[in-house]
Design a protein that fits this description.
The chain is an all-alpha fold. It is 70% helix and 1% strand. The protein has one domain (3-341). It has 13 helices and 2 strands. α1 (3-34) packs parallel to α7 and α2 packs across α8 (218-232). The N and C termini lie far apart (59 Å).
Length: 347
């Protein structure tokens, strides 16, 4: 099949996933409301004011899985693609079910040790299907770092899911960035998975923003999105121009990664466990500074889009200019962190 035809399939995957997600989300909301499955503001750490139906991640998972399955019967995948997508679906299903159980057990939820154990098992599934960091040797070090990467990004999207549209918009934009970079190299499983995830997240967003028919993604959605993105980030060769291009995923996923590390650092500084909740998120600090939630989500989405462009440049520029780009971003992060850390938060 010609490359142009694959481009049409990628676009079709995004449209199909968006349509399924958009149509299925209100049905999931109706079912969640009927079953009394609400996310209630039961503690000071909850940022919403009223009980809201959860489990929007069910629609996200169904849209993603159904799109890949439908494409499987509509076309012949290139060699190796089907095996990679099968591993992605098996691991993704395990993480989705973990998040679903956690959502159903709210407000208490599962302990972080249980979550880490299941996420590590899902990461092991990906390793068994050949997903791993390729530029680090020896292999056992690469596999250990791959496991840390998958579990870390999986939780980063869960941690950032504190405002309407924040985690889902980051997932959609990050997936599009991976798709854009991978298009030039025809990494087929990355392209199909990225397009499907971007569409599924985009189809969910209108309902997440809705004032009258709002639904939350829940842990089953945010954990799934993070897991899928950690997996697609391992599937492409980022640059033939310089050796620093392999770090492009750090730029693409910088917003959720930054929030995770920023929150953990502040919690440790306060003498608290980094695995317990707190109000130290960058988004909450921006809100404390006077920005509205819509403005914060828009700023974070804009930052993710700019970072996606920076990631592409890091794969296309010479090694010297790529290094300058990384150093510039590091300086910006330090300045932002200092400004946010000075914001006084109510405990």
């Amino acid at each position: 099949m010609k490359t142009a035809a694959y481009w049409e399939l990628y676009a079709g995957a995004g449209v199909i996933a968006a349509g399924i997600s958009f149509l299925l989300t209100p049905a999931v909301r109706f079912a969640a409301a009927k079953l009394g499955l609400y996310d209630t503001p039961s503690s000071a750490l909850k940022t919403h004011k009223t009980a809201t139906p959860a489990l929007g991640g069910v629609a996200l998972y169904c849209a993603f899985a159904a799109t890949l399955v439908s494409l499987r019967f509509a076309t012949s995948f290139p060699t190796g693609t089907l095996r990679s997508l099968r591993g992605l679906l098996i691991g993704g299903t395990l993480v989705f079910l973990l998040g679903l159980v956690d959502d159903l057990k709210k407000p208490r939820g599962l302990g972080f040790k249980t979550k880490f154990a299941v996420q590590a098992a899902a990461a092991a599934v990906l390793l068994a299907f050949g997903f791993r960091i390729h530029f680090i040797k020896p292999d056992y070090v690469a596999e250990a770092l791959t496991l840390v990467w998958i579990v870390g990004i999986t939780n980063a999207f869960n941690i950032i899911d504190i405002m309407d549209g924040l985690s889902a918009s980051q997932a959609a934009i990050s997936a599009l960035a991976f798709l854009f970079i991978s298009l030039q190299r025809n990494e087929f499983y990355v392209n199909f998975a990225s397009a499907s995830l971007a569409g599924a997240a985009a189809g969910f967003l209108p309902w997440n923003f809705s004032a009258k028919r709002k639904i939350f993604m829940g842990d089953c959605g945010s954990l799934l999105a993070g897991f899928l993105l950690s997996a697609v980030s391992l599937g492409t060769h980022y640059s033939k121009v310089n050796n620093l291009g392999v770090y492009a995923p750090l730029i693409i996923l910088l917003v959720p990664m930054y929030d995770t590390l920023f929150v953990m650092a502040l919690r440790i500084k306060k003498g608290l466990s980094p695995f317990l909740g707190s109000n130290d998120h960058f988004a909450l600090r921006l809100e404390r500074m006077g920005y509205s939630r819509r403005q914060i989500v828009a700023m974070a989405a804009g930052a993710a889009a700019v970072l996606g462009i920076c990631a592409f440049l890091a794969t296309a520029l010479s090694e010297v200019w790529a290094l300058c780009l990384y150093l510039m971003l590091a300086a910006e992060i330090l300045l932002l962190s200092r400004a946010l850390a000075r914001v006084a938060m109510r405990e």
